[in-house]
Amino acid sequence: MRVKKIVAIVNSVAFAIALCVAATPSQALADVGGAQGQSSADHADQFNGGWDGTTIGLAGRPYVTSLSIDGVSQLSDVPQSPGDNFWKTPVRAVVYAFNTCRVGDQPSPGHCYADPNRIGITLGYGNSDSIGTDFNSDAAAPYGITTSSVIDLKIQLNGFKGALGWTWLNGHPSYWSNDAASGVVEVKFSPNFMPSSQGLDPMCTTIPVSNCSTEQASAEVLSSSLILSVDKTNEVFGGALFATSAAIMGSIELASPINPADPAATKLTYGLAAPHLFAADYSPADGVAAGDARRGALYALLPNSLLQSAFALDDPARVADLLSVVRVTDNAAQGADQVAWTPWTSSENGTDGQLVSITNISFSSPKFEVSLKGRETVGGNPGDIFRKGMKKSQAEILKALKLQLAKGQKLRVSIAKASTKVCSVSGTAITVAKPGKCAFTATVLNSKGKPVAGKTKSASFTTRN
What are the pLDDT digits (tens) for 95-113? Predict the structure, then answer.
């Protein structure tokens, strides 16, 4: 039987970022120990795309320059090009060109692309034509890879230097660096179990996460894989890393483009999907019985640069106080999830940022929204957070004060004299200048510029550093 490789096509119109792929029959083959080796992945045929069928070609293919497992190198030398093969053990990493065209196909959006929009990297064992991918199988026992193993992987992006957006990982990350200038990416992580895709409801793998009706997984597999986005979708996520445990897939959605002038409007939604129950023959190390309700985790590294651009957080140490992480689907399970923030530094973890860990997640398709706390109102409710440079638009002011504009009417906003150093009016929006109390008045004017009776309201809110 011919082994196919995993394919990942994402509809960019959905304005979502796919973090994992497991939706094709080829993934099911991988679950039982078979996937394309590098030799097969390099060549397009009537079944699969391949690097030699891309515009960038074999010469532009990313390649692994270093791979160690628990401190033991799997290479005998340092590769200097995609063609170098210095594997000294059967454990290797294969680089796939996702969503490229098969022989005879023509590139078209949503079908196939002249160059990959996603690059897949999967660890396996075997030769250059095919690899096994389940490190929990009997065949993988000699390699001793477990959930406690530490895998250190370096990748030269080569022809995709400077094009890396987000990256998804199946595992628990401890180090991540992305040097756009050199094109070198390094990640350290421990692999995780994930459910087999065999017998899954196809909705379990939709992008973005929507629903997963499969009650129980057929099996759990121990795998090590990454997906790197190189189509420059949502470039603000360049260098951001996302990882999952016990999920078949994950996604991140952005309701609207990030606007640095209005960070309070930013909403990131992380989603995971998997069968509700673990496989009948699988019990995790934390004491959960075989076949019990699934528990998993999501890890998201938010670089300090992203915290600044998306949420205007100048002090990342305050991220737990200023950002809210709330479960917004499967609310019956809300409250079991545990959220923690861990600071990362470039010296210890490769990147300066904050890692949010959401653990003890129940399934089947939970979603979590990350936003600034108290962003829904402009009133003085405790917990409202407005910072220097933030703007409250006319629409937000009208909604908060329960005012409406009829045809021909306009809104006039004025700042109280005592608050002029704290905030100011730009058109009909309020801009925060410094910490303090911002008191203002909003008046609806008719077509002649006269105040409408009963349509003048005042309010205030507190601003912070």
Answer: 999 999 999 999 998 789 9
DSSP 3-state percent helix, strand, coil across the chain (nearest 5): 15, 40, 45
Size of the chain in residues = 465
Q: In this structure, are residues 415 and 424 in contact, taking their beta carbons and an 8 Å threshold?
A: yes
Helix (H) / strand (E) containing 309: helix 304-311
Residue by residue, what is the 3-state secondary structure of 312-360?
CCCCHHHHHHHEEEEECCCHHHCCCCEEEEEEECHHHHCCCEEEEEEEE
Both tokens of 119, joined, read 């690059």
Query: Tokens 């640069």 — which residue?
Result: 305
Tokens in use for 306?
């992203």
* Residue 363 CA: distances (Å) to CA of 215, 245, 401: 10, 12, 39
Residue 169's CB is within 10 A of a number of other CB atoms, namely 28
Report the relative pairing of strands 72-73 and 91-98 from DSSP bridges.
Answer: unpaired
Q: Are strands 367-372 and 323-327 parallel, antiparallel or unpaired?
A: antiparallel
Task: Write out the H or E segment, with its range, that includes residue 399.
Answer: helix 394-401
Q: In what order do the strands lie in the sheet with 391-392?
A: 391-392, 429-432, 423-426
- Residue 410, both tokens: 């306009």
Our measurement of the distance from residue 252's CA atom to the centroid of its chain's CA atoms, rounded to an integer in Å, reads 5
Task: State the pTM of this model.
Answer: 0.75
Contacts of 421 (CB under 8 A, 6+ apart): 433, 434, 436
For residue 236, count CB atoms less than 10 angstroms from its CB and return exposed for 0-12, middle for 13-18, buried for 19 or more. middle
Q: Over the stretch 128-177, which tens digit does the pLDDT of each residue have?
A: 789 999 999 999 999 999 999 999 999 999 999 989 988 889 999 999 99
Tokens of 455: 């349509």
CB contact at 8 A, 422 and 434: yes
Phi-psi region at 146: left, alpha or beta (left = phi > 0; alpha = psi -120 to 50): beta
Cβ atoms of residues 108 and 18 within 8 Å: no
Residue pointed to by tokens 């096994």: 132
Domains defined along the chain, listed by start:
12-372 (no CATH), 386-464 (2.60.40.1080)
The answer to whether 313 and 388 are in contact (CB under 8 A) is no
